[in-house]
Amino acid sequence: MGVIVHEYRVVLPMTVEEYQVAQLYSVAEASKENTGGGEGIEVLVNEPFDMEDQCTLTDRLPELPLAANGKIYTKGQYTHKIYHLQSKVPGFIRAIAPKGSLEIHERAWNAYPYCRTIVTNPGYMKDAFFIKIETMHYGDRGLMTNIHDLQGEDLQKRNITTIDIANDPVGQKDYKKECDPKLFKSEKTGRGPLNSTDWMKTVDPVMCCYKLITVKFKWFGLQGRVESFINKQEHRLFTTFHRQVFCWTDKWHGMTMDDIRAIEDKTKQELDEQRKTGEIRGMKAED
Q1: Where are the alpha helices (DSSP H) in 139-187?
Q2: Edge-to-edge, what's the strand order for the sheet holding 103-111?
Q3: Domain residue spans of the chain
Q4: 167-185: per-residue pLDDT in tens?
């Protein structure tokens, strides 16, 4: 089984503390934009976890310690979601996958500022498919050389891509004028527009999402194509999502974590309703 190790660095004009609220708000909103017509996101579990608390169910704890930048994290929020994805995977997979098999399970341990997400397809691909996303949120301009403490072969294999949310190209399907960082100026904070080529070197405040992606895939001789597709999709998703995070600053700025938990509870109910009705929505796969 081949392994891809790729680190994406997303620099943003906000503090690490602000991003905790910004990300969770934006995840809830983006989930609604990608759910409808029998497809989309189903939230099974969303609750606190504590690795030192004997009452936490063992199947809701990570297999390995949550660690980055020389620290271990033991508490946070655990989520388990199912993505119903028939129209959101490439045609060459849809052509050979049995109907109903394209359900992706996402388990995440958000021990902010560190977060680990595990993506699997237990119903069909089982051990032949695995994506691990480890994110460390840090108050700098994306210059840490090895914040995930990689060793040996993983460090040698790692490729690094820095995403520029303002200047990286965005496909026509994904472009929204209201989510263009080159045009957006926050009324609440005065931040933006990000209309210079070197904004990442000068903006203040600033922080970086260091996203380490580990992909393991072995399936019907399609390994190379699928790994390439996953990498392309991750880049696309991280770019589009973080453009929204910044351009929604005036929606989330000033919210508390209590506000976020209330929004998540309401969103879960809305997603359950949207999946049953309406039309398929959101980002489709680019074959």
Answers
A1: 152-157
A2: 40-50, 75-84, 103-111, 114-120, 129-138, 207-217, 2-12, 159-163
A3: 2-275
A4: 999 999 999 999 999 999 9
pTM for the complete prediction?
0.90
Contact yes or no for 48/108 (Cβ under 8 A): no
- The token duo for 151 is 């060793």
Element (H, E) at 45: strand 40-50
Task: Give the CB-side neighbour count of residue 128, counting CA atoms within 13 A.
Answer: 10
Residue 250 tokens, joined? 């005036």
Predicted confidence (pLDDT) at residue 241 exceeds the cutoff of 80: yes
| Architecture field, domain 2-275 | 2-Layer Sandwich (3.30)
pLDDT digits (tens, 9 = 90+) for 106-128: 999 999 999 999 999 888 788 88
Tokens coding 282: 């959101």
Long-range contacts of 187-190 (CB under 8 A, 24+ apart): 187/250, 188/249, 188/250, 188/253, 188/254, 189/249, 189/250, 189/253
Distance between CA atoms of residues 164 and 179, nearest Å: 14
How far, in Å, CA of 173 to CA of 284, rounded? 9
Q: What Å distances lie between residue 150 and 7, 19, 33, 127, 143, CA to CA?
A: 11, 24, 35, 23, 16
- Do residues 218 and 1 lie in contact, with contact meaning Cβ atoms separated by under 8 Å? yes
Rounded distance between C-alpha atoms, residue 114 and residue 251, angstroms: 24
Tokens of 171: 């496909």
Find tokens 């996402």 and name the residue. Answer: 106
